[in-house]
Amino acid sequence: MALRALAPFRHAPFRVLASALIISVFGHGLWAVSLVYQVRALGGGMIELSLATTALAIGLLACVLIGGVVADRLPRRRILLAVEIADTVTVGAIALLALTGGLQLWHLVAAAALVGASAAFFFPAYSALLPSVIPAEDLLAANGFEGAARPALQQAAGPATAGFIVAAASPGVALALLAACHLVAAVILAFLPPERDAHPAPDDAASPSTLGSPEAGPASAADPMGTAGTRPAAGSPGGEPGTHGDPTPSGTTSPFRDAIEGVKYTVRTPWLWWTLLFACVSVLSTVGPLEVLLPFVVSDQLGGDSRMFGGLLAVAGVAAMLGSLFTASRPLPRRYLTWMLVAWGLGTLPLAAVGFLSSWWLVAIGAFIYGATGAFGQVIWGTLLQRRVPRHMLGRVSSLDFFVSLALMPLSMALAGPLATVLPMWSIWVAAGVVTPLVAALAWWRGRLGEDELAHPLHLASRAESREEVGPAAPRGDAARDQAQG
User: Fold this and answer.
1) How far is CA 150 from the centre of its chain?
2) Radius of gyration of the chain (CA)
3) Neighbour count for residue 70 (Cβ, 10 Å)
4) Could you tell me the pTM of the whole model?
5) Cα 273 from Cα 271, distance rounded (Å)
6) Neighbours of 326 (CB within 10 A)
7) How far apart, in Å, do the first and last CA atoms of the chain sit?
8) pLDDT tens, 333-391?
């Protein structure tokens, strides 16, 4: 089973993409620490640091929906390459100014906004490109690899390396290393094969010509997505025009109409819509307590300091890495929607006890459960987007998912502090732990997700695709070959 997690590395394009991802994620870990100490080196404090981090969040939120539209209109490989080049230039300029003594705070704020904007283009393009690089049966393992790499590199190795460099030299040197990471990632991405060598579209993707048309049919219990009769036959490339992994040509539509199409598809797709609604409520109820109140729990209840707080974050990060690797090493569950919501829902229950605990180890156990179950659900969720969303709008739906996940984070953090001044701390933690499983059960019931997952058995589709696979990057079937040549 452990070898299943390594299956995507059989494919040369994924090895290229994964190498670039590793270096880029490691660089983002460098940025987190470098930014803090560069602000301090300029004489700034909490207000100045807040200004820089807010600029990054604004750049991300302002561009993430645009990034999804672009990912569905332009070659994703070129988008990733452009992002890495842009980050190389942006961070390289900041590093040069820092090392030569010409850096000012507004330079950092502007750079943070640009880094956030570039991330808004990177994520949808990467998510939409991945199904073109590897066959469907390897998507779960590939998402598990990403889920393990991010906490290991972005939350551990990157910040630790940056801290050592800042202590031994200066924040400018750490920023220079970050610019070098983006440059290396760009060079690696230049070797990524064109998307026309990609694999067919997801087995559950509806044909672009039928999406939104009366002929597609209404949603039903047996076919909740309303795509009966529109899914391609085995061996066909999902009914998408052009080459396999390329976005559908959008010359006759505007970017605004493309964005609206993505929103409409999301709203009328029950499994997608109800999961996103669940995510909104979960983010609103949990992120604020974790980000704002947990440090005070450590200091006031546990009698700890920053090392104890950092230890809790490390425990959650290690748990996320292990949870991702475990999920990647297993087949996709038959009841994939149910397992995903159960993991996300029950994983927050330990938070309900945080307000009553006085032992670091008990809180750490809760952090481990939260991190592991969150990663388990996230790996399945990323795979579902790539397997069940039509290929030609995967970028838009991925960016909408990203936007929804981020949009309520500032509100949750803004509410947590004031609520803690008028309500007992324990009551906020109880709500954080209990609301998510209740909403998960509601989403599963109202969205009829149990019926949906049985009507779309992805584990059986993966086995069929595995038997049909003729090569690591070869199209399957005469229809796929003819379309690739066309």
Assistant:
1) 10
2) 23
3) 23
4) 0.66
5) 6
6) 18
7) 39
8) 889 999 999 999 999 999 999 989 988 899 999 999 998 999 899 889 888 888 888 87
Structure tokens at 390: 């039509």
- Asked whether the beta carbons of 367 and 312 are under 8 A apart, the reply is yes
- Residue 151: name the closest of 380, 23, 283, 318 by CA: 318
Q: Which residue has the higher pLDDT, 272 or 391?
A: 272
The predicted pLDDT at position 117 comes to: 92
Q: For the chain, give the number of residues.
A: 486
* E strand segments, 306-462: none
Query: CA 305, 309, 314: angle at the middle one, nearest 5?
Result: 145
Alpha-carbon distance of 271 to 282, in angstroms, equals 16
Domains, the chain, with CATH or none:
1-189 (1.20.1250.20), 254-459 (1.20.1250.20)
- Here the tokens at position 143 are 């998402």
CB 192 within 8 A of CB 13: yes
| Residue given tokens 């049985």 in the structure block | 454
Is there a contact between 130 and 142 (Cβ–Cβ < 8 Å)? Answer: yes
Q: How many CB atoms lie within 10 A of CB 201?
A: 30
Residue of 357, 370, 396 lying closest to 282 (CA atoms): 370
Under a CB-based contact definition with an 8 Å cutoff, are residues 95 and 165 in contact? no
The tokens 């709008």 sit on which residue?
A: 393
Measured CA to CA in angstroms, residue 421 lies from 119, 301, 416, 427, 428 at distances of: 35, 16, 9, 12, 11
Which of 13, 152, 28 minimizes the C-alpha distance to 84? 28
How far apart, in whole angstroms, are the C-alpha atoms of residue 71 and residue 77? 9
Three-state DSSP state, 27: helix
Write the pLDDT tens digit of every residue in 199-240.
Answer: 444 444 433 333 333 223 333 323 322 333 332 322 233 333
